[in-house]
Specification:
N-(1-d-carboxylethyl)-l-norvaline Dehydrogenase, domain 2, alpha/beta, 12 helices, five-stranded mixed sheet, globular
Amino acid sequence: MRIAVFGAGAVGSYFGGRLAQAGEEVIFIARGEHLQAIRDHGLRVDSLRGDFVVQPAQATDDPAQVGAVDVVLVGVKAWQVPQAAQAMRPLIGPDTMVVPLQNGVEAPTQLAEALGSRHALGGLCKIISSLVGPGHIRHAGIEPYLAFGELDNRSTPRVERLRQAFSRAKGLAVEIPSHIQAAMWEKFLFIASFSGVGAVARAPAGVLRSVPETRQLLEGAMHEVLAVAQECAIPLPDEIVTKTMAFVDKLPPDGTASMQRDIIQGRPSELASQNGAVVRIGQETGVATPLHSFIYRSLWPLELRARGQVQF
């Protein structure tokens, strides 16, 4: 398959790199020093599942030079999706699938509105990875996992072809869930709560789960997301919070979320797409979300500062 990774950062580069390693034609859409390093030296990935280098690697900052592809993996931050959807138009052919890898649950709707519902799939991934330097990615935790599917949950040949392509790649697990929206909300329940509490507490997973006060806060935030999901008719099981806390208990003790790291380091973050989305959807459905409201409103001044809108 011909696959473009739009936003070849720490997440997109890992999954795109594994596909390239397995022999798929992968084009990385990147920019700046990262792009130049990939062009000059290839894409280097240090991983718990085995280090590798994609060299030579196809990379560009101009989607128009690539043309239509079979699949676009969208690796930008959640708040960048609407703008990215417009920029990736040259990559879209009649049958192109666009798979979001973002945290959150709003990207498929944004992609469908910009590119057409035929092209947008639901998708999610699980991985702890970071950009070590230009052209250099490090996978530091969690078994890499990818899930995607048609938004109406039909079984289609094109989605199965993509699953088969990923199944040939080393160092990751792939799945087509029976209900992609439920799978996305299951991750959303974890990541919005973990990211938000971690950003407020400025603490990694080992501390968040072992200190009774932050553990209680995590569980409460997850219950709020569950209540919102149920009001939206998303079929999450009642025991999902217990299951997700068991997952938190297995995270590396020093594990942190990308939103948490962005906020701590003064960069624009996915705050509005994670905790902010819980609050917005809760308001739309009449579900109270006091914990996520506190997290979102407490961190919002830092977000505005990171975006240059306030100074302090």
